[in-house]
Amino acid sequence: MILVLIGYMASGKSTFGRILAEKLHYEFIDLDDYIEKNEKSTISDIFKIKGEIHFRKLETQYLKELLESKKDLVLSLGGGTPCYSSNMNLILESNDVKSIYLKASIPTLMARLKNEKGKRPLVAHIETDDMLAEFIGKHLFERSPFYSMANVTITTDNKSLKAIMEELVLELF
Ligand SMILES: Nc1ncnc2c1ncn2[C@@H]1O[C@H](COP(=O)(O)OP(=O)(O)O)[C@@H](O)[C@H]1O
Ligand SMILES: O=C(O)C1=C[C@@H](OP(=O)(O)O)[C@@H](O)[C@H](O)C1
Ligand SMILES: [Mg+2]
């Protein structure tokens, strides 16, 4: 089985994915890391040098490659992956693939993103808290319809990684 983690930037996909894979004895791949490794470039540089559209094409290409070639995998996507091309349909229609939406509120996402803006090109330039809150709100409005198509949704606000794990294991097995 492939478990695909989706959700907004800073919802915990990369962090939680790694420990979920450990618990299940599955391989773990973070799609952003996989793209960086294969392209020999950072996500920030890909955005800067080749542009976001090129990044979106790479996301789709590597997502397809992984869904077709792997099993017993936890795959953490980037926040935008399910929202471009027909990536979410591909995930939903693939055999033995389950999608999990890690849902988090704007205040939770704000608090985390404020500390880690540098590595995320879409928010790196946003200066004030008000502007960041407005950006996340608008972006979530556009993206939530894709995230909500996931097989399982876990609300993660104020929950430890352990609590999220317990909830997910109950939902999945
Ligand atoms: N359940 C949680 N409780 C507290 N902090 C969390 C939780 N999940 C993730 N984080 C923290 O939030 C930040 C963003 O997490 P990350 O896994 O990089 O998110 P994503 O991959 O979805 O962008 C990291 O600093 C991580 O440690
Ligand atoms: O939401 C997005 O469009 C993006 C999210 C990032 O991943 P995280 O969700 O892991 O931060 C990364 O793929 C890129 O900066 C674009
Ligand atoms: Mg991540």
Automatic annotation (TrEMBL):
One of its GO terms (molecular function) is kinase activity. Its cofactor is Mg(2+). It is found in: Cytoplasm. Pathway: Metabolic intermediate biosynthesis; chorismate biosynthesis; chorismate from D-erythrose 4-phosphate and phosphoenolpyruvate: step 5/7. ATP binds at A10, S11, G12, K13, S14, T15, R120. Substrate binds at D32, R56, G79, R143. CDD domains: SK. It is an enzyme of class 2 (transferase). InterPro entries: P-loop_NTPase (IPR027417), Shikimate/glucono_kinase (IPR031322), Shikimate_kinase/TSH1 (IPR000623). Keywords: Amino-acid biosynthesis, Aromatic amino acid biosynthesis, ATP-binding, Cytoplasm, Kinase, Magnesium, Metal-binding, Nucleotide-binding, Transferase. Mg(2+) binds at S14. Its EC number is 2.7.1.71. It catalyses: shikimate + ATP = 3-phosphoshikimate + ADP + H(+). Catalyzes the specific phosphorylation of the 3-hydroxyl group of shikimic acid using ATP as a cosubstrate. Monomer. HAMAP family: Shikimate_kinase. Belongs to the shikimate kinase family. This is Shikimate kinase. It comes from Mariniflexile aquimaris. The gene is aroK.
